[in-house]
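Following up on my earlier thread - several people asked me to post the actual chain instead of describing it. Fair enough. Here it is, all 442 residues.
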Amino acid sequence: MAKGSNTPVPTTALRVELGWRSGPGVPDADASALLLATGKVRSDGDFVFYNQPAHPSGAVRHEGKRAAVAGVTDILSVDLARVEGAIERIVLAASADGGTFGQVPGLYVEVTDAASGQALARFDSSGATVETAFVLGEFYRRQGGWKFRAVGQGYSSGLEGLATDFGITVDEPQHAAAPTPTGRAPHPVTPPPPAPHPAPPPAPHAVVPPPPAALPVTPPPPPVTPPAAAPQPVRLSKVTLTKAAPSVSLAKQGGTSGVMRVNLNWQVQKHLSGWGARWGGGGGDLDLDLCALYELADGRKGVVQALGNAFGSLNRPPYIHLDGDDRTGAVASGENLTVNLDHKQDFRRILVFVTIYEGARSFADLHATVTLQPQHGAAIDFSLDECTVPSTVCALALITNTGGDLLVQREVRYLVPERGVSPQRTIDRAYGWGMNWTPGRK
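Reply from S.P.:
Thanks for posting it. Predicted structure:
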């Protein structure tokens, strides 16, 4: 599509893919969506992005990144049939993290039918220079239906500037007070002295008590209703863990309470080569299992995994719950673990890992992203490195209790089980968990 052109789209579930070519020196980018009524959001809840991944209506979701051979994609799902009637437009935007869009080659947005996979619209954005945010496209209502328009409008003020333009309240540090217009400090103002208390009247020589009388009863004042709490501003900060900077404190990112969602999203190349051709196997879909080894402060140890239906629990030990089992990788949201941070004092350590249940004999040609999203803190994400060994189990992240704080450490450690040794026993040995294992199925 050319910039400014439009095309009808069906009022159904759509997949919106923001993509670009990755490489040395190329900044990361993030997809976001703003649901607008009369040109502005109605509240901060109408902003969908990595720190606020779902709209309250369920119509728009941020599904996360997936690496591919040609580059990186960040996915939004939009169900136009569920969009509230007051919403007139859905703006589809991108923001650069650590650079400008002049350094991001091959930037595009593509809309496909979520059910059939049929491409409905694609806009390739070019000519960017110093922009750090872009409105790539938008859905808008027209004559009872929906259309998609290619926009291509850039901002040099980043995601913060784009969000505030549409009415979002952004969490940002307080600015220093501006100087006076003349540059001189204003004259000090001396407050007036407090008014003197009136002198009490002189007491009479003899006090004659008045006749008893019923004192008037003053009714108690009506209860004071506390004002409603002001809405919290949106946090735009996020943390990407790398080999050079592999760890982060949850407390420093504000993730000290509530729940934390741990998401694994993956994409498998259909045409395998190299290690993939040798170790990749299976003609069926790749079935990955997201798991967690845990050790509690009282010494109890265990595992949360689909194997053996050990799904855990959020409100009793181990305070970790596996949301479900994505058997095919076709589910857009991947696999998810939830950790109850209100019980962080009960954790000693948690090791999040992934195993191959069936469909392949190695992680070769797997392109995956891990995102840890605390309820009240910045998102933490990282990508998996290329696998060059016949591995069926990968340690993803180690979460350790250090003085009441939880430290998240990026691992991305591919392990190769010995013959006859299960992936779970292999990762247990590597991290010294010391558990006994028996065969299990799901």
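Residues 100 and 132 are 5 Å apart (CA to CA). That should answer part of your original question.
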